[in-house]
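Bit of a strange request maybe. I'm writing a small parser for structure token strings and I need a real example to test against, not something I typed by hand. Could someone generate the tokens for this chain?
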Amino acid sequence: MARTFEDIKTRVESLRRASAERDHRWNDVYSVRSGDTDTVMPGSMPDAWPKPIVANLIDTSARDMAEVMGAMPSINCSAVIQTTDKAKKFSGKKTKVANHYVQTSGLVAGRQVVAADNYTMYGMVLYSIEPDFENKRPYIRVENPMGTYIEKDLFGRIKSKTKVWVEDAIHLVQKYPQLYKVLSKSDSPFGGQSEGWASRKIELIKYCDEDQIVMYMPNHGNQLVSSMPNPLGKVYVSAGFRPGYDREIRGAFDDAIWVQLAKARMALLGLEATEKTVRAPLAVPRDVQKMTFGDDAVIRTDSPDKIRRVGIDVPSAAFQEGQMLEQELRVGTRTPEARSGNMDASVITGRGVQALMGGFNTVISTGQTVLSEALATAIELCFEMDQKLWPNEKKTV
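Reply from user aminoacidic:
Good idea to test on real output. This should exercise your parser:
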């Protein structure tokens, strides 16, 4: 039985409340990776240095893993029986069609790397299969997991998908002209047209299950944008999840971001200590009556050995702490120093390098297994959609 609009709104709010902690973690990781650390730890960055001065190992590790993990797997469609020429010909044709789906969707051109990046960063990869009615073929879209909520049954089958995102009002009106009256008058206190409506950010929610597809604006009285029955009778989404110890979806850097923040903070404190040492006040003997400053300045005194700057002693433990944070960050991101070209001189053999890369290789192989399974399911859904929408259409690959 199809859910009513009221049931959908209640269900979506329940999903958002249940995933509030997950969304908060993802926003923190996104902010740290983008260099916006003040959003995660307000007041941690001084006005003179609004951005961290250390390398963002979270971003570099995520890119490195995604570029290695996002290598396109080989796609082969084999039949159960391969003894006859007809079966072999059918398998070859099916393999060409599957590769055509992948190539026309842009996965080979780099979107598979984006999928691997989403898996590493968020712990989830989403392939959304959409019909391309102009070219009459399915299209595999790599979707950002941010703001996405998946409902599954006891057997892991996807029953519904909810997407929450923010869009500019001017772009939304171009897609849905009927919303102009709602958005252009919602800001005016006198009921007339508001001047700044076009630059506003509008939150949208799109809900899809096997019965219907509904999109509405929750902050505008749950204004319905569009509603239609699901003509395919199925949610065409393939999802892969990073293995974990609980039901929470966790990325690879959920805990490592705090080490990155501590490292950035320590670097700023060291910079501040150095600056204060350079700009420290000048201590002179009592017989100095006149002070001059600048290049080649002359200070007349009977005790020149007593002229000095008031130094700030930086403890050696601070440097040790910086090295420890660097090591902890490497462990937290599971990225060995060999990936960045930094390697201890005592480890020069191939076996030693292989031992250092063992943990990194394990992360890559596990991720590729999850991505391959999710992509295989997406290709299966492509065949199913193609047969439902264009059963008699002749196509050239």
